Amino acid sequence: MASADKVRVNQEIRASKVRVVEPDGSHDVVETDEALKRAREHDLDLVEIAPDANPPVCKVIDYGKYRYEEQKKEKRQRKRSKSMQMKELRFRPRTDDHDFNFKVDHARRFLDNGNKVKAYVQFRGRDIIYKDQGMDLLRRLIEELQDLAKIDQAPQMEGRRMVTILAPDKTK
């Protein structure tokens, strides 16, 4: 819709000469007034397709149909482009095996849906002395998910958290 609004039609075309593409596919360079006259003969509009070309390219088509086609094309593109979300998993340095496996299943589901996973180990108070346990936990998580994920960010400390980011791997 945004690109269709910027298109010049009929009298809005400013160039003195334009390359006109007729409905039958033939094209030639003519004065803008001549191009407008040809468009009126076919009961269609003169639509500027490529304004940056030298001379600008205009097509003799129905402008309403052209806008409709452009909107459909943009809608298809928006539908295809999927926005990726970041899902978070929080662990503690001494997270139990059952809880760990439960969260790994969640991470698998998130990755299967095409989302990134940000896993972090939260250190509170004196837990900060267990950084090695936190690193082992995140490495174990990465190992469990290596069949369907790739590492976006390796485990590293951010304040009192040890963070890693995993992204779905399209090749796997």
TrEMBL record:
Transmembrane segments: none
Residue ranges of every copy of the Translation initiation factor 3 C-terminal domain listed in the record: 84-168
InterPro entries reported for this sequence: T_IF-3_C_sf (IPR036788), T_IF-3_N_sf (IPR036787), Translation_initiation_fac3_CS (IPR019813), Translation_initiation_fac_3 (IPR001288), Translation_initiation_fac_3_C (IPR019815), Translation_initiation_fac_3_N (IPR019814)
Keywords for the protein's UniProt record, in alphabetical order: Cytoplasm, Initiation factor, Protein biosynthesis
GO CC annotations, alphabetized: cytosol; membrane
Keyword Protein biosynthesis: yes
Compartments reported by the entry: Cytoplasm
Any one biological process term the GO annotation gives: ribosome disassembly
Domain of life, source organism: Bacteria
Protein family per UniProt: Belongs to the IF-3 family.
UniProt-recorded name of the protein: Translation initiation factor IF-3
